[in-house]
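hi support,

uploading two proteins for the ticket. first:
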Amino acid sequence: MKNKMHGFKTVFSHNLGIHMKSKKYLAVTIILAVFLLAGISIFIMIMSDKNSRKDQYTYNVDKVYVVDETGLGVPDYSTYGAALGYEDAADTEFVTSDKSPEELVDTDGAQYVVVQKKSGDSFVLCVIFGNTDNVTDEQVDFNTAAMEEYLVPCFKTHLFQVSGLTGEQIVQVMLPTAINVSKIGGESENQSKHIVAVIMMMAFVMIIYFAVLIYGQQICADVPMEKTSKLVEQIMMSVTPYALVSGKILAMVFASVIQFIIWIGCIVGGVLLGDVLSKTVLGVDTSAVTTALDLLRDWFDGMGFSGISIVLAVLLFIAGLVFYLMLAGLAGSALARPEDAANVQSIFIIPLVAAFMLVLFASGLTASGNYNIPLAYNLVPFSAAMTAPASVLIGTLSVPMAIVSLIISVVSGMIILYVAARLYKGMMFFNGKKAKLKDFISAIKG
């Protein structure tokens, strides 16, 4: 094996330098890094400022005019609000009026008007604010947001009463209903954790999918580059096909991983910078970062997050990416010239799209609401690249099985590399010729 990998270091370092020094690579890396760092920090500051402003305001609506266009009458919002636990509604005076909203604003000086309408098969409550010149926009937004919370429940209570339900029946109907999914002998499933798990799974699926599409096409066209060179025979005497193919692919993978690390670092840096600036520049006591972390801590509680699971998730992600990029290298090895790359990209694109569709529509990400991916999905390299990293973080894939999945992906990638190298060497002399299937088979057999 040592002789077969002769020249690997030279090929790897040479191609890595070419990729990382290219203007396109540097431009994309730097521009997106700056955008993430600045954009996230600014977003954190905006959200922190918005949250801090909410604490400065209190609901101060004394009177609300109500115009009914449904013919069902106006609810006693104050009474219903008190019964349902909405103190803001209980402290507000609601005045029924036959005037138009415009007239109420112009002649009665109304600040807030609620219009009850019927639109098709549904009801609509329109909140209109008028004479609020002496009130800030933020205070108006706060007031209307508070009104939106209690208007609908109170109006629904009124509809139940109009339909003939008793007070006790209305209370029963208005009780909140929750869904708790569980298995006999198992634990109940937290719906918020389910949402986080699905989002995490989708994130890994999309990252792998687009990373393979972007880098795979570049590798597919880059692998046969030397075949068009007049120095191809000298190159093949200096390095082995195994070293040439693996050096090119791994250099691209390494460059892409460095990009991801830089961008993730900028995301973390943007969050930390936004948190610091929110507290120092804006004087916010509790930033949006602190609020979000408290929420995430509650959501992630009980999942499989640990030091070893995070390490395994990273390794599984890299192994899955390398596996698909090896397929792209296999496709490129069959080419006589880079211009024909589009003709063989289906070798890695079709399995990629098939696995993508399978994970999305034939797994636990469907409407069944179950995010426990079947074990086979996490072991077969084509789908494991998309599901295994998230599964081990969520806790649905055990550490031993994650190690097995990692080994399978690595071994599968090495097998593809071996086949790609033999194909590359065997197809070396088909430059300008149209190869047939039997030629590829013969090349692989040697």
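and the second one:
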Amino acid sequence: MTYTVTAHLRGELAKAGHTQLRVAALLGLSVRAVSDRFTGKTEWRWGEIVRLCEAYPSLLDILPTAAVLDAAMAAAA
């Protein structure tokens, strides 16, 4: 995932009050691994994004827009 998608994920989950600890438990990852994903050090896997969307359906409202923005920025680079 690129920056825009990660930023939207982080923002939406934080706005809903979901901590990295809760996200880590949901995904079966360490808090450090989740932090690495939120900071861009490690890329998100699609399976992780799918699990997050299943648990937090509101993400489905923002992720398509973020993905389109990322694609447009990549094409312009």
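thanks. also noticed: DSSP finds five helices and no strands in the chain.
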